[in-house]
Every structure is written in structure tokens, then in C-alpha cells.
Write a structure and sequence with these properties.
single chain; 205 residues; mainly alpha; Arc Repressor Mutant, subunit A; 2 domains; 71% helix; elongated
Length: 205
């Protein structure tokens, strides 16, 4: 076997185990599914599992990373339907609120993937989200869609925190089940804030 073939086989086996673990966690839950269950689902031995993962926690971490990659891939698709930064950020917010509610008719994201994604440390989730939005905000700064002095990292974190709140906390005043309400909320309170050219107050010395 050539080195390339061995590498491909290793990658395939790793992916097989992750996908099998994903299926087991979906059927049995994170707590109940065991490495034996995952091995049976994958059609491999326990020793093969341990060649790739030190323990169940490492498998959960790999599944969470897989879920994260899938989440951003699907959110990118939703955002790509919009042409402006405003359209894209509104689409991202709609995607997140619908992902939280697991609206099967839209097939945006599924409950098992969402649960695994949330096993990640909150600080890691926040950093990934900020890094995801940075290119969009940087591009908008170059095109003039947002103000030239916009701090891309800070703005990205602020928007990421808004998305986390939309995901986790129901509104007491707005019907966030309606995409047009979510989009309007983001348009009125996020994008226009990024684009404002009003003079900023001077800090006290």
C-alpha cells in the first residue's frame, strides 16, 4: 500500500467512526452511547476505534467539530443568497433562529447536530463565529457598506453574541418564528449601527 493510499484509508476510517458516532448519539443520546455501540455501528473493532481516538470524549469533540463545519457550511449557503452585507447578516440571523427550532421543512440543520455543536466550549464557539464573520465585515468596509473605522473583530463579536442570544433566548416582545421579523430586527439594530457615520463621542482623558 502506498503512503497516499494509507492516508486515504486512515481518513476514510476516521470519517466512518465520526459518522457512526453521530448516528449513535442521535439514537441513544450522548450519555448512553458507548464506544462499543459506535464500533458496532461502524462495523469495526473497539481496538480500531482506539487507534483513532483516545476515549469517548475525543470522539464527541470530533463530532462537535464536524457539526461546526456543517453548521457554517449551511449558514454560508443561506447567506450567499443575499448580495449586500445587510442581506447576508439578516440571512444569518434567520438561519440561526430556524436552526434552533429545528424547522424540518427548511432542512437547515438537525437537532442532533445542534446538540453536538453545543458541547463545544462557549469561548471556542464565540471565536469560531467571530472568525467566520470577519471576511464579510472586512469586505463591506472596503466597499463602503460599513464605516471605514469599524473594528471588524469587535463588530464580529458583537454580532456573534447577538446570534447566540437569538439562538438561546426567546423574545418576550417579538415573534422570532417569523423570518421577516428576525431580518427586520437585524436590519434596524445591527447593520445600520455598523454603517453609521455619526461622530463618535470623545473619551474623557
Amino acid at each position: 500500500m502506498t503512503q497516499a493510499s494509507a492516508l486515504n484509508q486512515a481518513t476514510d476510517t476516521h470519517e466512518l467512526i465520526v459518522n457512526s458516532a453521530f448516528a449513535c448519539f442521535g439514537k441513544q443520546g450522548l450519555q448512553k452511547a458507548t464506544i462499543v455501540d459506535i464500533a458496532k455501528q461502524a462495523g469495526v473493532s473497539r481496538s480500531t476505534i482506539y487507534e483513532y481516538f483516545s476515549d469517548k470524549a475525543a470522539i464527541v469533540e470530533a463530532c462537535a467539530e464536524h457539526a461546526s463545519e456543517r453548521f457554517y457550511r449551511e449558514m454560508t449557503k443561506a447567506m450567499d443568497r443575499g448580495g449586500t452585507l445587510e442581506d447576508k447578516l439578516c440571512a444569518a440571523a434567520v438561519f440561526v433562529t430556524q436552526a434552533r427550532r429545528v424547522i424540518s421543512s427548511e432542512k437547515y440543520f438537525d437537532e442532533d447536530a445542534t446538540s453536538l455543536l453545543l458541547t463545544k466550549d462557549a469561548a471556542v464557539l464565540l471565536r469560531e463565529c467571530v472568525e467566520f464573520f470577519a471576511p464579510y465585515l472586512s469586505a463591506a468596509r472596503l466597499t463602503g457598506e460599513v464605516r471605514k473605522d469599524l473594528d471588524v473583530e469587535a463588530a464580529g463579536e458583537w454580532f456573534a453574541r447577538i446570534l447566540f442570544s437569538l439562538f438561546s433566548t426567546p423574545s418576550s416582545t417579538l415573534d422570532m418564528d417569523k423570518p421577516e421579523v428576525v431580518a427586520g430586527f437585524v436590519r434596524d439594530h445591527v447593520v445600520r449601527g455598523f454603517a453609521s457615520d455619526r461622530p463618535r463621542p470623545r473619551r474623557a482623558q
